[in-house]
Amino acid sequence: MAKWKVYVTRLLPPKAMEALYNNPDLEVEVNPEDRPLTRQELLENVRGRDAVITQLVDKIDAEVMDAAKGVKIFANYAVGYDNIDVAAATERGILVTNTPDVLTDTTADLAWALLFAAARCIVPADKFTREGKYKGWAPMLFLGQDITGKTLGVIGSGRIGTAFAKKSKGFDMTVLYNDVNPNPRFEAETGGRFVDKETLLKESDFISLHVPLLPSTRHLISENEFKMMKKTAVLINTSRGPVIDEQALVKALKEGEIWAVGLDVYENEPELTPGLAELDNAVLLPHIASASIETRTKMGLMDVDNVVAALNGQLPPNCINPEAFKK
User: Fold this and answer.
1) Are residues 308 and 207 in the same domain?
2) By the 8 A CB rule, do 186 and 55 touch?
3) Which of 10, 92, 219, 287 is catalytic?
4) Residue range 11-19: mean pLDDT, rounded
5) Is 211:186 a contact under the CB 8 Å cutoff?
């Protein structure tokens, strides 16, 4: 019996790769270089595959799907899947999967790391110390914002937004949240109060974004929203880059409309909007919200389970488009 041909667009953690290589039914090939594939490389390497494990940087559209004629599944190594044209996949009977749940707390943890770093000037203070500029305690050195007892605004009350807000209990914070509709589960688990977006922006000391990228959330935070925020406000984004209008963000940070920002995602990722990298009140991370050893390994193993299920004619456990199953 011929083996199923699986292509991996970028190397996964060791245990996930071992699970692929040790499966006797799979013939596995992986991108040998630790970088994203070019468009042409992607089109060439998906040909003749039964399954492809993809990354968020891989744009999987109709052209790629047609190049991968006969492919049964695109297994995305992420909880998000806005890089994949799901409608086009469904039309062609191709299954699409993601890796939900396993990265919820890991991402929420990193959002808190960004919040603390931005609020307390951690990055410029670290740089200052490393450069030998620290000459002893000084009363006005790197003054930041207090966190305990302040008001936390959460936009997006899904799994990650809820996990993030729950962690605020240790800091005795007031929680406000906004979403398309009130979320009783969020309220029960966090004690949060549903408010409109304008109220949240005006009253919150810290604002964290946890929304998917949709037409309605693109530039959810832009020039008008920055003007509503407190001048001491700290904004955190671990969701999707285009949720924030980065040009308006740079302007708001330069002009002191808000105190600071902590970003793990970017509007034109991996490119940064000009001026952003030069700002000391911006903490900038390279999309590492899920980057713990345990979580990234679980994500990889989940992808393997999704691929194996699809190739064996079963509905994968994390299928986004079940209507394409056996179409």
Assistant:
1) no
2) no
3) 287
4) 97
5) no
Place 123 in a pLDDT band, splitting at 50, 70 and 90. very high
Across all residues in the chain, what is the average pLDDT?
97
Amino acid at 225: E
Q: 149, exposed or middle or buried, with CB in 10 Å at 0-12, 13-18, 19+? A: exposed
In this structure, of 79-83, 147-151, 310-314, the range with the lowest mean pLDDT score is 79-83
Select which of 49, 159, 210, 240 is catalytic: 240
| 110 and 96 part of one domain | no
Q: What percent of the chain has pLDDT over 90?
A: 97
Q: Which of 207, 195, 210, 212 is nearest to 249 (CA)?
A: 207
Q: Is 269 noted as a catalytic residue in this protein?
A: yes
Domain extent, residue 116, equals 104-284
| Same domain for 218 and 230 | yes
| Confidence class for position 230, pLDDT limits 50, 70, 90 | very high
- Per-residue pLDDT, 186: 98
For residues 89 and 227, membership in a common domain is answered with: no
The answer to whether 287 is a known catalytic residue is: yes
Residues 158 and 229 in one domain: yes
What integer pLDDT is reported at residue 326 of this predicted model? 78
SS3 at position 244? strand
Count of structural domains within the chain: 2
The verdict on 227 and 156 lying in the same domain is: yes
To the query of whether residue 240 is one of the catalytic residues in this protein, the response is yes
Residue 132 sits in the same domain as residue 256: yes
112: domain CATH number? 3.40.50.720
Of the candidates 27, 41, 189, 269, the residue annotated as catalytic is 269
For the entire predicted model, the pTM comes to 0.90
DSSP run (H or E) holding 153: strand 151-155
